[in-house]
């Protein structure tokens, strides 16, 4: 009896320890996911800050060029190019750096139009995808239902065949018993 109570107590302690471990593992997973998201956000914020730095530098140079166009430094000035991979360079050169102050407004309007078009295309694509996914899931459920029904029918047929065989064996056993008792 004492051993059983100790076993029960140890089992309870083990269950508590396992629950604590599961809770810690869940917390660690949540923290890891949060860290990944935060790192991604920090990367985006860092890139945005760099783009803003380029934009401010470009605008300051444009203001200086307009104030003193005869300056030898500003005579042949062109917008600075980003020193980064090709895709980022194109993005930075065409979406971030501006040669004049009215340019950002026009560029923003152009980008808003592109974003609207892409958003509409994405929504249409998502609706199509959802429809195809629902259709596929419906077909899968229908197929699974048909397979389950076929298996149930097969199981019933096997049970009937088994019952018939058992009845035949029972009859044969009974008839052999009768023959043995008569002999």
Note the main sheet.
Answer: none
In which range does the helix fraction lie?
A: over 70%
Uncertain stretches? 80-87
How many DSSP helices? 4
Structural class: mainly alpha
Distance between the termini: 61 Å
* Rounded average pLDDT: 80
Query: Tell me, what's the shape?
Result: elongated
The rounded Rg comes to: 39 Å
Order of helices and strands: HHHH
- Strand content is under 5%
Strand tally is 0
Write a brief caption for the model.
The protein is mainly α and 183 residues long. The protein is 88% helix and 0% strand. The two termini are 61 Å apart.
List keywords for this structure.
183 residues; mainly alpha; 4 helices; 88% helix
How would you describe what is shown here?
The chain has 183 residues and is mostly helical. It is 88% helix and 0% strand. The chain has helices spanning 2-67, 72-75, 86-95, 102-182. The longest helix is centred in the C-terminal third of the chain and has 81 residues, at 102-182. The two termini are 61 Å apart.
